[in-house]
Amino acid sequence: MKSRTIKVDYLARVEGEGALYVKIKDNMVVDIKFKIFEPPRFFEAFLRGRNYTEAPDITASICGICPIAYQMSSVHAMEDAFGVKIDGQLRALRRLIYCGEWIESHVLHVYMLHAPDFLGYPDAIQMAKDHPDIVQRGLQLKKAGNDLVALLGGREIHPINVRVGGFYKEPTRQELASMSEKLKWARDAALETVRWTATLIFPDFEQDYEFVALRHPEEYPFNEGRLVSNKGLDISVHDYDNHFIEEHVQHSNALHSVHKGRGSYFVGPLARYNLNFDKLSPLAQETARSVGLSNVCCNPFQSIIIRSVEVLYACDEALRIIEQYEKPDKPALEIQPHAAVGYGCTEAPRGILYHRYRIDDKGMILDAKIVPPTSQNQKTIENDLWQFIPQHIKLPNDQLTLQCEQAIRNYDPCISCATHFLKLTIDRL
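Given the sequence above, the corresponding structure tokens read:
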């Protein structure tokens, strides 16, 4: 019998640290362990004993790529606890800042992290030598998203303008209008991005996933909606804990989130697209169909196209909001804290992000629970590898390693958010 070991100390182009262990015996996969070994950062514990007003700024520090998602889930949970409903222009501004985050986060993944896999480059820097125009388009498109976040959030990274009840400062019509030309260019660039990503070569790999995402009756989901799936789930965000649990697995510091009685599930762009295609803008729908997509996509490798479609939608939606914007009477509603439990769930770029807080009568946080998208996808990633690796098991170790990394990057894992990825070990016996 032969024995071979492959080690990748850290998975490139993934935020965070972890490892993958694969054991192969007689050309059969006998064990796969998707390991998260980066130590937990205890944000849930940090929140205890802090005033509810501090939650948006504290949670924004969980991730530098998707801080808006953490802020939005936290403010929605607090407002749910205190019986506050945000509507009108303040609600529209929340969708607008989320548009900015989707643009910058998705574009970072599409151009800088995932495209090199498809084009055979170790990173975007090497890719830029042969495809400078493509990389330049990606950088400029990402900047448009960053600029929108900075305008509404006060700064690009860990924004400081979001608060429970609304914003500390609302933008003027003139300030938002200044973004219109950038976003019109971005929309055209996003259109080209969809067409470009659709030309990439994708493995033939489809699975029978349970997709879970928010569903809103009137709009493609950012901040609000019911939690639904393609397999019959339809619940209020308040019922999340009754249907989903986090399980500790021995080989990982991270928790695996599962659907009770069903197992793994899939969150993120593919889930949103499959469950909400009819809520995309007409341009986004038309463009998706024009490149060969239907309203259902079950190949995770094609998620790079779906992310590009969502960038196009976000640009479209941002322009719509800006065109209809009227400055609200005040930047935030008054909040009267009291003892309560609040629930919030929004669509981070990588999928649903759930927050639950228990507050005392003085507005102090007694308990916090945060379930990021990557922890919800971890078991699905592991299941994908069980199905994917046997199809490529005869490849040389270096090629198999690259294939495994690409399969993992389909999910754009943000491990430090979740707890944390990739060192790869393959034992061939």
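The chain has one domain: 43-376. Try to locate this feature in the token string yourself.
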